[in-house]
Amino acid sequence: xxxxxxxxxxxxxxxxxxxxxxxxxxxxxxxxxxxxxxxxxxxxxxxxxxxxxxxxxxxxxxxxxxxxxx
Length: 70
Prior knowledge:
Radius of gyration: 16 Å
Shape: flat
Number of strands: 0
Oligomer: single chain
C-alpha cells in the first residue's frame, strides 16, 4: 500500500535539494577560475549544511541550527 501523496512530496523535495546544490555549485564555478576552488567551495558548503543539521539534532538548545541548513 503506497501513500502517493507522501511519495510525491519526497520526490519533489529531493528534486528541489538537487536543484539548490546544483545552483550554488554552478555559482561557485562561475566565480572561481580554478575548478579545484569551485569544487572545494561547493563541497565545503554542502558539508557545512550537513553538519549544522546534525548538530541541531543533538540538543534542544542548538535546534536553531537546523533552520540554517538545507
